[in-house]
Amino acid sequence: MFFVRTATERDLAKVSALLGETAHATYDAQYGVEKINEMTAKWHSVAALKANLQRKNGEFLVADDGKVIAGMGFASMSETLHETAVLHQLYVLPQFQRQGIARDIFAELETCFPYAGTIQVEVEENNAKAIGFYEAHGFVRAGAGAATWGIATIVMEKPLG
User: Fold this and answer.
1) Which residue(s) pair with 62 in the sheet?
2) What is the 3-state secondary structure (H, E, C) of the chain?
3) Does the global pTM surpass 0.90?
4) Phi, psi at residue 132, to the nearest 5°?
5) CB 49 within 8 A of CB 12
6) Which residue ranges form the domains of the chain, and what is each CATH number?
7) How, if at all, do strands 58-64 and 140-144 pair?
8) Which of 148, 102, 153 is nearest to 127 (CA)?
9) Which of 85, 107, 110, 127 could lock 116 by a disulfide, CB 3.0 to 4.6 Å apart?
């Protein structure tokens, strides 16, 4: 049984490993190991995660059973969009997917931003599993994303409240 709780600095090495493993399992075949290594080194390093953990108006959660951190989520209020929370990361280790862990993390994150009218997420445009998850949880496509690292994305949004 996994419990969703606020992440601590002690969790960051495990979360970094989780993010790397999940990113490689999801994207290696499409983008190659080297590109995913570059991305994970930048976005999923302990230092990057520590910055997220310390971010004002942010919420960093993990799903923990006392032995394994099986999932994580990080969201924060947008610095540029009015009354909008941004879901930056929602990852579950491949062997624990489809067990409700992402649902439980997301349900908790949704409650963390009482001043947000909308929550937004950017998803790789070919990641059908993620798009299906977000659509099942009330998100709709809202446009094209930033295409960072040459990876095309879509923006999805959901009203909150």
Assistant:
1) 5, 72
2) CCEEEECCHHHHHHHHHHHHHHHHHHHHHHHCHHHHHHHHHHHCCHHHHHHHHCCCCEEEEEEECCCCEEEEEEEEECCCCCCEEEEEEEEECHHHCCCCHHHHHHHHHHCCCCCCCEEEEEEECCCHHHHHHHHHCCCEEEEECCCHHHCCEEEEEEECC
3) yes
4) -60, -40
5) yes
6) 3-159 (3.40.630.30)
7) unpaired
8) 153
9) 85
| Tens of pLDDT, residue by residue, the chain (161 residues) | 899 999 999 999 999 999 999 999 988 888 889 988 888 888 899 999 999 999 999 999 999 999 999 999 999 999 999 999 999 999 999 999 999 999 999 999 999 999 999 999 999 898 899 999 999 999 999 988 876 767 788 999 999 97
What amino acid is encoded at 87 in this protein? L
Tokens of 107: 């349900």
> Pick from 146, 46, 25, 156: which is nearest to 91 by CA?
25
Sheet holding 69-77, edge to edge: 3-6, 58-64, 69-77, 84-92, 118-124, 153-159, 140-144
In the numeric block, the tokens 């624990």 are attached to 96
User: What tokens appear for 53 in the block?
Assistant: 């953990």
